[in-house]
Amino acid sequence: MATTGIRPGWPGAATLIAGALMLQPPGALAQGASADELRQLREMFERQQRQIQEQANQLSRQQRLIDTQAREIDGLRQAVGAPRRPPRPTAARPAGEDQAVVQPAPAPPPTGGPAAARDGQRPSTAAEAEAARRQEQQRVLATDPTLARVGGILTPRGSISLEPEINYLYSQNTVAAVNGFSIIPGITFGTVDIRRDIERATVAALTLRYGITDRLEVNARFPYVYRSSTIQTAPADITASPITVGPTGSGIGDIEFGASYQINAGQQDWPIFIANLRVKSDTGRSPFEVPIYTVNDPQGAFLRGLARELPTGTGFWSVEPGVTVAWATDPAVFFGGLRYIWNIGRTVDVQDPAGGPSTPTDLDPGDGIGMNFGVGFALNERTSLSLGYEQVWVFSSSAGGSRIAGSGLDIGSFNFGLSYRASERVSFNLGVQIGTTESAPAARLIFRVPIRFSL
């Protein structure tokens, strides 16, 4: 930092003048100088003393500024994992030197917080470096389709995120009912009824997120569902033609509410732990509300029990607590999660495929356990990707207190996510899930556009 308004030559001149005045005897001063000249010299001497004092004060202020900046640089180095700078050696002063050499103060690092860090500039403080690191980590985690749904992504304090979403699902199941017997493995004597079900679902959803603090977020998701299915059943009579029906359904889905809280700061190479809570309502149309085929319908003997229309919800409330773990190790971010799914049972009216009246039944859908893990990378300041796996085990359901055989589910999928940050506020996220088990959808595509606003 330059010392403006101070002429370095003046202190030396003041010293010479003062020395000259002290070396001359009083008589010489009285004889060789008038009273006015003595007064002028005295004023010049006092003025030089004041300037020397001002220069000393400026040197002191500069030294304090240098010390403050040095502490900030050390904190920044520690935040990014770089070694602390070595102490600056003190240069020896020449003999007889009584004036400190003014060193220009280092220019302050560029400000701009996380944005400056992403553009390759150094954040101005350790706090801003930590904020940039957190934002980069959250951007990587947001690419994973599972974390975006169950929790683990935090919105900064005072920010609102709107996330329009399009979700496409494709599923195919083939069920064979054997009416016969087998003597040799693989060879069946008798008839086989085959039912093939191809389902497509498109979900348009809007998710709202609000950051109460940098560690606490609340969110809500509002889906609209359109489903279509093609069901083909082949009767046991080989002379009969296959029967095909195509039920559809559309309407509002099950609205969800959630919250996420970061438990720890994740310092000293510790992973961060995020507690999540998600609550799913039953606002969608229940499977027990849609009409079904009965034996009284045409071809009812083969279609009985199948839905004429498709539901848009599950028909039950569920509560889903869980925890997400994220560990950043440059250049990767490892993540994982564990959650419990509590499906709350209730009394429902079960329709009779024989055409009789509905029967009130205490139905308790099975609870479940879900886990996921993966790794994400920031390819550059705008593009991130993630690879992961998700597994959900759903326990058997029960009706009237009795377990329903074969109602348990085993759902697994490989996940791939890609994110592109178009600007400071807008990102484009694409997720792909490929089913790995019989109960899982064959494929799911998820396209989200998070748009962030600061209040």
TrEMBL record:
Domain of life: Bacteria
Biased composition (Low complexity): 90-104
Region (Disordered), start-end ranges: 78-134
Keywords: Coiled coil, Signal
Range of residues in the leader sequence: 1-30
Coiled-coil ranges (or none): 35-72
Keyword Amino-acid biosynthesis: no
Keyword Cell membrane attributed: no
Pfam family, one: Phenol_MetA_deg
Protein name, UniProt field: Transporter
The species this protein was found in: Neoroseomonas eburnea
